[in-house]
Amino acid sequence: xxxxxxxxxxxxxxxxxDPRFVxxxxxxxxxxxxxxxxxxxxxxxxxxQEKADSTxxxxxxxxxxxxxxxxxxxxxxxxxxxxxxARDSLMYTRLKTRMYKRNLTRQLxxxxxxxxxxxxPSGEVAKIEVNPFQPxxxxxxxxxxxxxxxxxxxxxxxxTRRPMNWLERTGxxxxxxxxxxxxxxxxxxFQEGDPVNPTQLRDNERLLxxxxxxxxxxxxxxxxxxxxxxxxxxxxxxxxxxxxxxGGFSGFNNFQIALEQRNFRGLGHQLRNRIAxxxxxPGQKTEYEGRYLIPYIGKTxxxxxxxxxxLRYQKFLSVKVFRPFLNPDTKWAGLVELGRYWLTNRIxxxxxxxxxxxxxxxxxxxxxxxxxxxxxxxxxxEDRARIVVAGRVTTYDYTRRPDVRADTxxxxxNRRTTLFSIGYSQRRYVRDVLIYGFGRTEDVPYxxxxxLVTGFxxxxxxxRSYLGVNFSRGQYIRKAGYLYGLASLxxxxxxxxxEQTVLGLETNYFSPLTKLTLGQMRHFLNTRLTLGxxxxxxxxxxxxxxxxxxxxxxxxxxTKRLVVNYENLLFSRLNVLGFRVAFITFANFGLVTFPExxxxxxxxxxxxxxxxxxxxxxxxxxxxxxxLAYYPNLPNTxxxxxxxxxxxxxxxxxxxxxxxPQITPYE
Length: 667
Prior knowledge:
It contains 8 helices and 26 strands. It is mainly beta. The strands form 3 sheets. It has a 21-stranded antiparallel sheet that branches. Strands 1-3-2 form a 3-stranded mixed sheet, covered by helices on one side.
């Protein structure tokens, strides 16, 4: 950084008096920043505010804060106000102070950097928040006002904040905000004339934050002047940038282009198209992927999705309509899915060889669930415990496959599996920041789930029954952080003998946020144990990909696996072109063995590394990660060092809801 300062200072000394140079340099910097916004904009861009928001004639520029503000708790008020404090405290960094001494470097700084405005110190969560809407329970909702903020430069925590520069204003003008009537029709659980339900309002705020098209959302309840019966509700939303172009070009004989719109024309619909062409490939030269998704249709909260995938080794057509248990008060949930698949399947045998074969089949999946209030007493009514019963029927009908025998290729039987489940769910949520996100509000689940799954399978090799149990719990531990644990056990029974048994144990932990000079830091520790017994032929677990090290190696397979992942994440104050920067160090350890060998007797595979991640919470695409890793004992690897530049999907918390009956996964 000092080297950068010196170079900029020398540059400014040479050209400070040349206004043409200053103007050209700043213009070039801004041009580079705008390239991503201007790519592939035809057909999907428009002016953001097609219609004035319903709050415009009714509210002043700065909304009043009442006790029913969704952030007006001791913890929440700190979150709401700390944005301004963070902005002030971070504004005069050493780099900015030096660059602001001269006109050229000041303009260069303004063009390239922006102060971190969404970095809020989040202390330890010592207790569950009190619902801020409770004081107005039972009052009648008079008017519902919706205020939609721009993607860049705005904040739901301060509605008076405006874009700071021309780049942010241009981005807001190019983006089409979610339409107000769509928010009212598809994303609100309440309407005018309803009595205020505090838990419903809080659930609705969480729902808005989790749908993927909003960067953040906030709901306020304000008493109507002169009335003790009526209140007005303000819904404030901030979109994320929804247009995601992608592609690559190696020549007119080898290229790909993709365009994903996460909020098509402000309707909330998702549209994705990808085309790839390789003229040198001997078989299929053109590939295509397409998806159209319509979330929360009307007030039904049904979501419809259609997929068309025509890749070289994977082709399928699929349609589905589903409705999850959006919150603990949702009574009905279910899914209907139909698909036709043409695959070239690849498996790894125990002899370390890869086998490929065609696999074509029809697939159908139907399930329906009903939620009931729990008859058991809970300490806190905020927990909203529920009993959920559900049934599911899944069918595989193969038209092309390898030979199926009692001891070979049992996975590819024609079969119909019928499952029933009964479960107990108790959950609530705590708001926090800087966990998996880079400054947005995150709803951390807190609760318990226990479920019993039973059923039967009718297949070519005979009928068998299934039994499985699952238990999970997660909570904040005072002054220690958050801990989640999961235990699951499942097995089939045929003629009194077990088949495809699996035991899974998993823990996820993250520490309280620690404030440092360079930023704020968390520690993450995850463990995962998988034990399989009496599995079918060529049915293994591995240490590849996201299961452990982030590298592929076909030799790391077995029937038993233990993985331990540690990661230290430093959320820095650095903000480059709107991208927050976090520095990572990590250590991964893994064991995987076959039945005849004890798990702890196998070689301990290791990985160590460091790197950094960049993410702009106003954009919907994945985080970028650059990392250098050292793997001292991976088999058949020419080098122990690995360098990677990759996209990292946004992680989600394991929630405590119950959906369709599931076979305990072995993966």
